[in-house]
């Protein structure tokens, strides 16, 4: 089993940020081992890891090595380019924007909006956008810090201005949304996704496995109550069908010893 991708799977991170629970700064003489141990005790309440893409493998890398900055994301590599070509993408839980950048640079997306609950990650995304040569004010690319689970947020976001979307990606985020908002929150999200997409619109979900939830809960007591009340299980197939989607494709993948399927859903007219 890989020690890289598995970190996300286990709800742990290699990076550093300013989440609510942090250990004191690491003393310079501490070994890499000790630093790793410290990071393992850090709480990332929303999966809002920094340096996330240093441990998610790219399409061309093996799972032990960090991907080069401009290599295609390992999940996008499994998906048909036609899903993105000429489409307006909303990437929910964009972290530092890797999926957004790759959708524009490698998958032919017409425009991308990335949204993340952590404003520090959105700052990172803007900084990386500059490094990649995206001009400020390029209307093909935008990032927002917001909690997509705030009631009515998605509906208002899509209704406002010209922010129509054709494709929505939810990669490695359903565990966090589920643990914070429970079954009711997920059902509401699926209804909102259906409401904001046009007929033929697509949702692509990379759900975390149920077994994967427990570590996050162990690490963060605040999630226990919601966790105990959860009845629904990923990958939420029945619930997505009930919300009005049809499963177009299920791509089986494994990453770092974890099952990482990609489910491509389409809104039926
Ligand atoms: C594990 S990371 C996955 C990042 C990216 N989707 C990927 O797979 O490459 C989950 C991301 O979702 C974000 N997130 C969690 N809950 C959120 C919410 N309610 N609204 C917006 N973003 C959220 C976290 O801050 C984090 O960046």
UniProtKB/TrEMBL annotation:
Positions of the UniProt region annotated as Disordered: 1-39
Leading EC class: transferase
All residue ranges annotated as the Bin3-type SAM domain in the record: 73-269
GO MF annotation: an example: snRNA binding
Keywords noted in UniProt: Methyltransferase, S-adenosyl-L-methionine, Transferase
Pfam family, one: PrmA
InterPro entries tied to this protein: Bin3-like, Bin3_C, BIN3_SAM-bd_dom, SAM-dependent_MTases_sf
Keyword Transferase carried by entry: yes
GO term, biological process aspect, one: snRNA modification
EC number, UniProt record: 2.1.1.-
Keyword Disulfide bond part of the UniProt annotation: no
Family: Belongs to the methyltransferase superfamily.
Protein name per its UniProtKB record: RNA methyltransferase
Organism: Rhodotorula toruloides
GN (gene name): FGENESH: predicted gene_5.135
